[in-house]
Write a structure and sequence with these properties.
The protein has six helices and no strands. It has 198 residues and is mostly helical. It has a single domain, classed as Up-down Bundle (Ferritin).
């Protein structure tokens, strides 16, 4: 090999701004598995927490989307107030979604991501595709909150027993408190009371 050949072999390749399109890769971690991370928790504890968190994550994503749909479809005399409330609650649910997914990843798991996968796992019943009356939409939100709260209370108790303080804290301090507060705000819109006595 000549000196000129060696220079050609080691010469930098020209750069290109062309994106590498249609990339595919091997699945490097299956859903429902956890990698070993140095977080001071056993494999079984991390596996349990990831399973429970992914369930709460799926239900939270569905609740978020219900809030957005109801935000768009709200009607009636309290349209403006409920339109804003639905959007505010959707934003708070978005923050929960990120926190839950990041906790799953912190434990070495895989957070459920694809909406089609979410639809397979969720415990929240599917609402009709069209618009419902306002009380029905609000009732659906309350039922979804209760589903999440029941699961989060149980998961929080179990993760506390297992010593997973981080997951317990997330469930109690963020998931449960946010959902309780939102359920209260929504429920008060279903109380039929006059503003003043006649």
């Amino acid at each position: 090999m000549t000196t000129a050949d060696r220079r050609t072999d080691t010469a930098p390749k020209p750069r290109s701004s062309q994106p590498w399109l249609h990339q595919r890769g091997e699945e490097i971690q299956e859903f429902g598995t956890v990698r070993q991370f140095p977080v001071g928790l056993s494999y079984d504890t991390r596996m349990f927490s990831c399973q429970r968190l992914n369930q709460v994550l799926c239900d939270t994503r569905i609740l978020h989307d219900m809030y957005k749909k109801h935000h768009w479809l709200m009607r009636g005399q309290t349209f403006y107030q409920l339109h804003l409330l639905m959007d505010k609650h959707a934003g708070e649910q978005t923050a929960l979604i990120d926190a839950i997914a990041e906790r799953v990843q912190t434990l070495g798991g895989v957070a459920v991501g694809d909406p089609r996968h979410v639809a397979e796992i969720t415990n929240i019943p599917r609402p009709p595709d069209g618009a419902e009356e306002v009380p029905a939409m609000l009732s659906r939100l309350l039922e979804a909150h209760e589903t999440i709260l029941q699961d989060a209370h149980d998961a929080a108790a179990r993760t506390q027993e297992l010593g997973d303080d981080g997951t317990n804290d997330l469930l109690v301090s963020e998931v449960i408190r946010t959902n309780e507060l939102q359920a209260w705000f929504v429920a008060e819109h279903l109380v039929d009371t006059p503003l003043v006595r006649s």
